[in-house]
Amino acid sequence: MTFADLALGEPVLKALKEIGYEAPSAIQAATIPPLLAGRDVVGMAQTGTGKTAAFALPIIDRLDVTQKSPQALVLAPTRELALQVCEAFEKYSAHLKGVHVLPVYGGQGYGVQLSALRRGVHVVVGTPGRIIDHLEKGTLDLSELKYLVLDEADEMLKMGFAEDVETILAETPETKQVALFSATMPATIRRMSKQYLHDPEEITVKAKTATSANIAQRYLVVQWQQKMDALTRILEVENFDGMIVFGRTKSVTEEIAEKLRARGYSAAAINGDIAQAQRERTVNQLKSGKLDILVATDVAARGLDVERISHVVNFDIPTDAESYVHRIGRTGRAGRTGDAISFVTPRERGLVKMIERATRQELTEIPLPSVDAVNETRLSRFDDRITAALGEGDRMEGFREIIAHYVRHHDVPETDVAAALAIVAQGDTPLLLEPDPEPKQLRRPDRERGDRPDRGDRFERPDRPERRQPREGFTTYRIALGKRQRVEPRQIVGALANEGGLRRDDFGAIKIMPDFSLVELPSDMSRDTLDRLADTEISGRPIELRIDTGRAPRRHDGPRRNDGERRPYGGDRDDRGGYERPRSYDRDDRSRSYDRDDRPPRKPRHTRDS
Predict the structure, then answer these.
(1) Phi, psi dihedral angles at 310 (to 5 degrees)
(2) pTM above the 0.70 mark?
(3) What is the per-residue pLDDT for 567?
(4) Number of neighbouring beta carbons within 10 Å of residue 421
(5) Secondary element (H or E) of residue 11
(6) Which residues pair with 192 in a beta bridge?
(7) Rounded mean pLDDT, 385-392
(8) Which residues make Cβ contacts (< 8 Å) with residue 280, sequence separation at least 6?
(9) In this predicted structure, which of 198-212, 346-360, 444-458, 551-565 has the lowest mean pLDDT?
(10) What is the mean pLDDT of the segment spanning 41-60?
């Protein structure tokens, strides 16, 4: 079957041909015909099966470009997915003049969104929280909506968007066509489909969890702090052509690419924040050989097919088998061989077992390449450079005379001259690595203070419960809402994901306490993300996000104001720019103290009669 067999219009087919799509995937072949026929659809398919095109192509094919109010609304659980869907709509509508697509998500300024809505848009792709904001402000008109898509509906429910989604559905016309896509079908989604969809056609596509036999799959166990060093050593000992390094978050990809460039590698990052034009330039550089290493997030690498990719490195191992299969599928394509290497922290060993069970293929554990192995590889490459230079006979003759002249006039052995030239050629970077240092002693030896315990021992009492340590790469944050404010984990996940552009994988453990809550978030979040999260509210209450220190907040730990200063708890700004002391700290409210001369006379001490 081809896309032409699906009765799509010529402009859409032309765009698909330019992109390189040849045949529809299973979900596309099953979904596009009923959507073109006007039926509601419930599709069960995993991420990476091509469902974006499954709902985007029928919508684009039937858009009325003359209508300025939104005709299609796509709800996505995260900012990154919303941007990906927008990018797909723009690519598929490249040969339809005047089609405007608008991403709407938390963290982006309202001004850009409002200007676009006033000019007129045909497709709106957004997260539920920000769509609700526009509906409440009256800046988004859905009265003429024709198509509504719920993308990854189960993820939206897990993130606490169930009420928002139903509110949005209630604001849309009854005559709209609805497409609901989900990886699973929990009871809530089943109820929602019965309530809001009219006689939907249910389509199920099983996820592909098989990996290619042409891909050698390996992993090594490293601590989080060792990952960058491990990646550098892998690059030293592996004979690779092109490589993709997968990171879990956008900030991680940018940090990895920057550190690789500092080590002399040609590397670049692509993620949801990269403009489409820049993404295409980067991919073309990888194809042409001007770039050797691409550092990417899952979403940014979707649909990427570069022939020279010989290696895939999972800097952060994915938490589901489908993402793992999708990642390593970027290599070993069209019968070629490939290599996939995953970095696994000690706490993530269970993920390896999960992937092995799902793919029915064993991953081979390998050790961290040693200094000797790296040095051996460097010497081998150095030998190859010398051999290649010796093969250039014409150029060699002139340099022989120069070396002979130096030896005669300075009385230096030729081997010393050759060593000196090697130093000049190598530059400041040493050719060989120093041996690994001996493991550091983690604890100080006990001081010679008799039987008196060391000061630190007071904090190691066995009967004192230990504070839970966050998992690798995560930091525990405190928010100022708890059980007394009736906050629930789903509300925390939904609010933070909407405002900070976070995914489900970016959340660790969540613990609700009486007056506050603790949530584990990635340690590498950017300052921009933290600033957006600091302004987040749940049910109209500010969450006052801060790093948890294990103690009750002090006065100087107050939330940041817009001017960057901290506001002490209970204190308000006074007219002089300072902070007034809370009334509970005022000496006038305490019991009065007396001067010595004003004290009341003391009663005589009672003595026992003899």
Answers:
(1) -100, -25
(2) no
(3) 42
(4) 13
(5) helix 10-19
(6) none
(7) 74
(8) none
(9) 444-458
(10) 85
pLDDT > 70: percent of the chain: 79
The residue written with tokens 């809550």 in the block is 517
Give 289's contacts (C-beta < 8 A, 6+ positions apart): 242, 308
**Residue 499 one-letter amino acid:** E
CATH number of 215-370: 3.40.50.300
CA–CA gap between residue 344 and residue 353 (Å, rounded): 12
The predicted structure's pLDDT at residue 210: 59
The two three-digit tokens of residue 213, written as one number: 């036999």
**Cα angle vertex 248, ends 127, 470, to 5°?**
100
CA angle in degrees (0–180, nearest 5) for 115-118-124: 85
3-state secondary structure 411-436: CCCHHHHHHHHHHHHHCCCCCCCCCC
- The domain ranges of the chain are 3-204, 215-370, 373-426, 474-569
Cα dihedral 221→226→227→231 (10° resolution): -100
Instruction: Provide the residue count of the chain.
Output: 610
Judged by phi (left if over 0) then psi (alpha if -120 to 50, else beta), residue 355 lies in: alpha
Is 474-569 the same fold as 215-370? no
Identify the three-state secondary structure at position 184: coil
Two structure tokens written together for 358? 């799902």
pLDDT of residue 544 exceeding 70, the answer is: yes
Q: What does pLDDT average to over the chain? A: 79
In b/e form, how buried is each residue of 572-594, taking b as 16+ CB within 10 angstroms?
Answer: eeeeeeebeeeeeeeeeeeeeee
C-alpha span between 576 and 532 (Å, rounded): 29
**Any bridge partners for residue 518, and if so which?**
478, 511
For residue 586, give Cα distances in angstroms to 573, 581, 582, 590: 16, 7, 7, 7
Find the helix or strand (DSSP H, E) in which 150 lies: strand 147-150
| pLDDT interval class at 299 (50, 70, 90) | confident
Q: Which CATH architecture has domain 3-204?
A: 3-Layer(aba) Sandwich (3.40)
CATH architecture of 474-569: 2-Layer Sandwich (3.30)
State how beta strands 101-104 and 242-246 pair: unpaired
**600 pLDDT above the threshold of 70:** no
310 sits in which H/E element:
strand 309-314
